[in-house]
Design a protein that fits this description.
By secondary structure, the protein is α+β, with helices and mostly antiparallel strands. It has 17 helices and 23 strands.
Amino acid sequence: MLDVGQNSTLGGGTPLYMAPEQATSGGRIGPATDQWALGLVAYTLLVGRPYWRGEQWLDLAREIGRGAAESASARARGHGVELPEAFDAWLARCTAPDPSLRYPSTSHAISALAVILGVSMPEPSIDPLAATQASEPNAPVSRTAPRAAGPRAGGRRNAWKPWAIVAVVSVSAWGLVLFLRHDREAKRAAAAPSGSVPTVAAPPASSAIAPATVELLEPEAGGFYTSHRPPTMYRWKTLGAGGRVAIEIERAVADRFEPLGTKLAPEGDDYLLVKWAELRATPGRLRIRATRDGRVTAWREFSFDEHALARVLRHKRVRVGIERIQHEPFVRWNPDTGKQEGFDVELAAAVAKELGAEIDLVPSTWSELLTPSHGFDLVISAVSITKDRCKAFTFSRPYLQVGQRLVVRGDHVLGPKDVFVLGAQKNTTSEAAARAEYPKATLQLFDTTDLVFAELGNKTVAAILVDEPLAAARPEMTIKGSDGWRFSSPEKADEAYGILMPAGEDELAAKVDAALDAIEKSGRLATLAERHHVPLRKGTAAGCPK
């Protein structure tokens, strides 16, 4: 440590690095007190001189009481040292007169300082996620600081020497910064009441804290993630010019958050791929924020579990995706009750009950339901099991045998050799069957089944191809004469509906299969089908190969 001429202590601290609350009778000393010393020690190591100029105790006390007269970078410049502007905001927050305005913990301050100095955090014994300083997101961890810049023009020197940066970051990372009492936070945590993990607020608004220059896009706030989901964790939108984006990530432990580490993205990139195995996250709540040039976003929380079943059992809740359209007899919106109703909704509730969980319905578009990266545990929305879908998802065993039926108006008779305009919903088995079975027809595709039925009603298409239960539930099927609808193709059941899950969720699939077995054997499935006029056909369509 440099000899700065103020080595005596008073009240348990060295005057140059003592926070105001240490020198005040009755002052509340806590973890925030350590940040005051951390900030001033960091300045001394980087500049080679202490920030405060008072040489006598009384002069020093008056200077500290008045507060900083100029920014850290301006004062360092007077000694021939250039500090990044972001260091000003960092030191101002560490030395805020009100301890509540400082960082949430010393570890937060240390992580922020590492980002500002552009260095990697050394790997401590708890094996946190190491920081990356190479151009690749997952490059090996460096154990040394980058080479310091050479002398500046005009003879100014730069005090960012390797030994100083390593001293500031390395010593801080191990919680042994000079004059810090590293056990304070542990004692505070032990005395804190148990309960749910509180959200630690983002840095308070202050003239010393610049607005964020990045906007987080992923992961979604409150999202649920497992090791089976794609590794794309971090994505952001850059606002204005600036340097590299750093992603800080923390995990909830008891009633607080602990840093897992920091990842630096290549300059100019707006995403960072991190594999869950590399993250080494334990199941529970996590949070991230993005930092660039010392400016930070608010913390964003999400949940991680090894697999979906573990999360369902831990939270006693299951997220079920359904189509948000009027999709009778499977899903419909009841304006009187303000709720979704239908066969799919009741089946989802029955499955959730067998899993010992409450249900969270998530109405979505068809394309969202069939996106592999979706955040649902289950999708129950009349989804046919196909070979292609089996490659991208996990399915339950079949629970309903169905088939495609051609629907026409009045007494029209149309077949595979006829030339006509045929409507179907895109990205469905109806589209595939229409192309295969009616090659001479002009195919028109629509986003939803509602639109398919509407076009038949408007006479813009001569016929439509849909799942039989969807057409059977339409009131137009009961009308006789030219305005009524009827099936114009043979009855068959060569498809099967299954409950869709994310790929790799075999544990959850086994539990869902067991739930379907219990629902079917008890007669509840037959009762449900009868109530919603869903035909229980016999068929041979199978599930995904095991």
